[in-house]
TrEMBL record:
Domain GP-PDE: 14-283
Official protein name in the record: Glycerophosphoryl diester phosphodiesterase
Pfam families, per database record: GDPD
Gene3D superfamilies: Phosphatidylinositol (PI) phosphodiesterase
Taxonomic placement: Bacteria, Pseudomonadati, Bacteroidota, Cytophagia, Cytophagales
Gene name of the record: glpQ
Membrane-spanning parts: none
Listed SUPFAM superfamilies: PLC-like phosphodiesterases
Length: 286
């Protein structure tokens, strides 16, 4: 884990969180992205999970096949208006597994290396990452798993939050990585369900709106271990509020070195980035 100092000169550790593995460098939420992020030296792999029709925990940001990322099982392009018909919650994993999600060029990420890749199961990611970490003789990585649920999506794009969390938690426990895993979500219901099912599991509230910090905590009903704001929301006042509640703070998604430096100056606990190589280079220089 890399080290730096805060604005008062205090020595601290900063966690490097690879967003969707390393979305800026490899196809997002795929085995190549997670394994490359591991090789770069990230501390934590951030990933998203959804549920298939046969209740498999699939690593994917959207609960459908994205037109900008994937082709269908026959290798045909998907049009944006066709995405709802590729609802992963209505598709068995045997179909999802046949769809490529790594060969389309991403204009937002010109450094991304295109390669054939599919949406893996969470258990598959854990197995591959744990094995590769042993090969590299490096410290085990942590997992930050975003539960992708919404009130509007209940029973349409995913099961109820209670069942959703139950399925994900089962995979984490089977993989033997629960002690190195945290659940994060924008959906407060998912975090409430996780707290009930696994009281010791670290939980993180993701935030992207201007609602006051205290209001978010009141709606959640408990103090989570981590606060995950969109990075422009982070300032000295928010840092003081988070620290007053003994919470950690890991902003997302920070890709430019100038923004990384500003957050280091504020002494955040970690940074989630599509480009962990950039953050690691900055930390090495420091």
């Amino acid at each position: 884990m890399e080290k730096t100092t805060d604005s008062a000169g205090n020595y601290l550790k900063l966690e490097v969180h690879g967003h969707r593995g390393c979305r800026g460098l490899r196809p997002e939420n795929t085995l190549p992205a997670f394994l490359y992020a591991l090789e770069l030296g990230v501390d934590t792999l951030e990933l998203d999970v959804v549920i298939s029709a046969d209740e498999q925990v699939v690593v994917s940001h959207e609960p459908w096949l994205s037109a900008t990322l994937c082709s269908d099982a026959d290798g045909q392009s998907i049009m944006p208006d066709q995405e709802p018909s590729f609802n992963l919650f209505q598709l068995p994993y045997t179909y999802i597994r046949r769809c490529d999600c790594g060969l389309q060029r991403q204009l937002r990420f010109p450094e991304q290396r295109l390669q054939a890749a599919y949406k893996p199961l969470l258990r598959e990611v854990c197995q591959a990452v744990e094995a590769r970490a042993r090969e590299l003789n490096r410290a085990p990585v942590r997992y930050s798993i975003e539960v992708k649920s919404t009130l509007e999506g209940d029973t349409i794009f995913h099961p109820s939050p209670t069942r959703f969390v139950e399925l994900v938690l089962g995979e984490v426990r089977t993989a033997g990585v629960e002690s190195r895993t945290s659940f994060i979500s924008f959906d407060k219901r998912a975090l409430q369900a996780a707290r009930e099912q696994a009281p010791a599991l670290p939980l993180g509230l993701l935030v992207e709106d201007l609602k006051p910090f205290q209001q978010h905590l009141q709606e959640l009903g408990f103090i989570p271990a981590l606060y995950g704001p969109e990075y422009p929301l982070v300032d000295a006042q928010l840092m003081a509020e988070v620290r007053a509640h003994n919470m950690r703070i890991v902003p997302w998604t920070v890709n430019e070195p100038a923004a990384m430096r500003a957050l280091l100056h504020l002494a955040v606990d970690g940074i989630t980035t599509d480009y962990p190589d950039r953050l690691l280079r900055l930390l090495n220089r420091l």
